Amino acid sequence: MSMLEALGAQEDLGTERLRLLESSLLGDVPQLDRFVRHDVLDWAAEAVSAPVASRAADVLVAAAAPAYADGVTDHWRRLAVTGFLGAEIEHADETMPTGHARLDQLLAEVAAADIAAREAWRQAVTQMQVWTTRWAPAMHEATWALHLTDRLRLAADAQLAAVLAFRSGGFNAHDAAYGVWNALSGLVHATLADDLLADEHRARLTLVHRLVGTGPA
After folding, report:
1. Distance CA 115, CA 121 (A)
2. CA distance 24 to 176
3. Could you give the CA distance from residue 96 to residue 156 in angstroms, rounded to a whole number?
4. Any idea what DSSP says for residue 186?
5. Phi-psi region for residue 2, left (φ > 0), alpha (ψ -120 to 50) or beta?
């Protein structure tokens, strides 16, 4: 095999791995169940033990599972969400405020993204791919700073709000797999830990957003 053929084979393998990342589920339905009961509903300890609260958690899990699992038919999906819809619980398809003014502004911008804005994010991510190895250390520093200052709950809420903004802005699974989500997630952490991060790490986590043209100069 020639050098060019070897490089081509490596590129094909890399593309296939990205496609797998784009389409694969994280975890399984039992893990989703635990996430809903023990993380999302951790503020209500009764969600695990009390009969009424446990049944309410059952409804939430049943509604979430079809959207999460692959290959579920529309018929079973409708049956699974009947209890949730029947409860007439208000739910949001748009960005929820986090209470952090600067972050809420950023997420509102993402949620309102049009075709040009989405393309700007994609191009900025592509432009900065050579620096992706520096993203993880910067993200680690931001997460550690948030942990030490007891801001992890705020950070978790902010990341979930960012998911809503990402979807509302028209970004898709391909964008998530190819780095746009990492860029947004890092921006969220950097914004929450702005007063704690070293300049180097702050610059790394906010660089894509600044390249998009909506961030600080």
Report:
1. 10
2. 12
3. 13
4. H
5. beta
Query: Would you say the C-alpha torsion 88, 93, 98, 101 has a positive or negative sign?
Result: negative
Q: What is the pTM of this model?
A: 0.65
CA angle 7, 9, 15 (to 5 degrees): 105
pLDDT tens digits, one per residue of 72-115: 556 655 665 566 666 666 655 555 778 889 999 999 999 999 99
Got the DSSP string for 2-64? -HHHHHHHHHHHHHHHHHHHHH--SS-HHHHHHHIIIIITTT-THHHHSHHHHHHHHHHHHHH
SS3 at position 150:
coil
Pairwise CA distance, residues 170 & 10, whole Å: 31
Please tell me the total number of residues recorded for the chain in this structure.
Answer: 217
Q: In 112-172, which ranges are continuous DSSP H helix?
A: 115-127, 135-148, 152-168
pLDDT tens sequence across 26-37: 667 787 788 777
CB 214 within 8 A of CB 192: no
Q: Contact 8/16 with Cβ under 8 angstroms?
A: no
Element (H, E) at 210: helix 199-212
∠ CA 160-91-82, rounded to 5°: 115
Could you tell me the two tokens for 17?
Answer: 């791995």
Interatomic CA distance for residues 177 and 171, integer angstroms: 11
